[in-house]
Task: structure prediction
Amino acid sequence: GRGRGPAPLHLTAAGEWHSGQAAGYSSQMTVPGHPEAPPADRPTWPRFRAAGDSGLIVEFGDQLDQRINNAALAFDRRLAAAKIAGISETAPTLRSVLVRFDPLTLAPAELRRRLQDLLAEADWLAAGPPEGRSLWRVPLLYGGEAGPDLAEIAERLEVRAEALVAEHAACRQRVMMLGFAPGFAYLGELPERWDLPRLPKVKPSVPPGSLSVAVRQSVLCATTIPTGWRTIARSPFRSFDLSRDPPFQLEPGDEVAFEPVDQAAYDRLQAKAEAGGQVASREQLT
Result:
């Protein structure tokens, strides 16, 4: 006989769409206080949020978590393989996937139905890391002019700057998403004491290769950008380089191991990079 079809989308009291079947909840409308609504501490995932009239966000959680990030990356790849006519672009984030579409080609209700079908195919929160990912070993010059906020962080945490450098470099960090600027990589997750607030004021600019930290994450920029994060180091490596093919060096799911270098080594590597040489090593993980 025919199996049960995909669960319908449900509209929450907050105006959010979510998949009852994929989240494992009843098909009742999720209204706070409803006898069959999930407890307040168990939000319904995955769920949908509108992003204007030509965008839809599929959320898999609301925390910085590798399991949630795996789900977003896996679902983004499934969307790419599905090749749904009318979808112009998808972009995975730390915890969600943005789906851009042409509403004149693909009606929003039909898009939601197609996404619901894909969400019902698997337990996306059980997905593993993406295949084909790499481990990058990236040189970093910590402190001084390259990392002007390192000393302040050390004072805040009441530790020596050298201890912070050793701890940061010992953390093999994962590329959780690219965004904000070309090649701008969000990396995590750092130990709990790196749950640092952002700066009270945004810096007008930091140079390419700057490595900044906040909220248990590192961010590595490839271009000159403004930032409200605390800059602790700089690398001669550029994660976005138009002279290379492909220009984006890092991919979500890759891992990065930072290797501290002194000023003399940094200067040599910077000269090599400016001459077109590769200054980071890469090895395949899966």
About this structure: Confidence is low (pLDDT under 50) at residues 1-39. The CA atoms of residues 241 and 247 lie 5 Å apart. The chain has six helices and 16 strands.
